[in-house]
Design brief:
Blueprint lengths: L2 H4 L2 E6 L3 H12 L4 E7 L2 H10 L4 E5 L7 H7 L6 E5 L5 H5 L5 E4 L4 H21 L10 E6 L2 E6 L3 E7 L2 E6 L3 E4 L3 H5 L7 E5 L2 E4 L3 E4 L3 E4 L2 E4 L5 H9 L1
Parallel strand pairs: 1-2, 1-3, 3-4, 4-5
Antiparallel strand pairs: 6-7, 8-9, 8-12, 9-10, 11-12, 13-14, 14-15
């Protein structure tokens, strides 16, 4: 088991420059292993978020207004895994004194972002081997909300999901369930090791994949498009 088999990594971005916020938000949302919890513009806001939430991965700008990213880390009782972001290469040597996972120099490229995230996952997996989490039973069914009621569905019977405005179409062997929940809310209920987002509107159960190429995936007899930004992560997941 790996950290990403248990859940997506909850990320906090601490960044005062809006263009950098947009770039990090886009890259995080395209990554199947990450979940963007919040974006903070300064250290005070970030500390309030950290005190109320469990953060798995912190993207931290070093040159923040009021208090630097370095001083911010020193103020925390418990430091989450950190990827530093900054426009100043001179900060690189200082940042690694804090045993951070990686250092991204602005403007941040997608390749460098993916490299940093993979290093974070590799490091957390290495720590998990040393200190394994207690084994928890994976549920075999979930209760899918339908308005004020719910219907129980066997997880293994779910073939794929389709985002539908404020709803999600859940396709099983026997029926289509129109769930009154967000796609991310439903994905949080499902094992990430089994369900893969292949498009902004589609998520598949990889157990039912019969064939696939760069543009589409066939799930039983359903042909589902693959979004350009999802191709690499899908290739990695299905090849495994």
């Amino acid at each position: 088991m790996t950290v990403t088999d248990y859940k997506k990594l909850k990320c906090l971005v601490v960044e005062d420059e809006q263009p950098a916020q947009w770039v990090l938000k886009f890259f995080i949302e395209q990554n199947e292993f990450l979940d963007l919890l919040a974006i903070a513009s300064d250290a005070k806001e970030a500390k309030e978020i950290i005190e109320k939430n469990d953060i798995d991965l912190l993207f931290l700008d070093i040159n923040l207004p009021g208090i630097s990213g370095i001083d911010f880390l020193n103020s925390l009782n418990s430091q989450p895994p950190v990827i530093f972001t900054t426009a100043y290469a001179a900060y690189a040597a200082v940042s690694f004194e804090y045993n951070v996972i990686d250092y991204l120099l602005k403007p941040i490229t997608e390749n460098h972002f993916k490299r940093a995230v993979q290093r974070a996952i590799d490091k957390m997996n290495a720590e998990l081997v040393k200190n394994p989490l207690p084994i928890t039973e994976i549920p075999t069914s979930i209760d899918i909300p339908i308005g004020s009621e719910s219907v129980t569905a066997n997880i293994n019977d779910i073939i794929y999901l389709q985002s539908w405005g404020n709803y999600v179409k859940v396709f099983t062997h026997n029926q289509m369930i129109l769930a009154s929940i967000s796609t991310q809310g439903l994905l949080d209920m499902l094992p990430s090791s089994k369900f893969i987002r292949v498009h902004k509107s589609f998520t598949i159960n990889k157990d039912y994949v019969t064939s696939w190429n760069q543009k589409e995936v066939v799930v039983i007899s359903n042909v589902i498009p693959i979004g350009i930004s999802y191709r690499q992560s899908i290739q990695n997941a299905l090849n495994r």
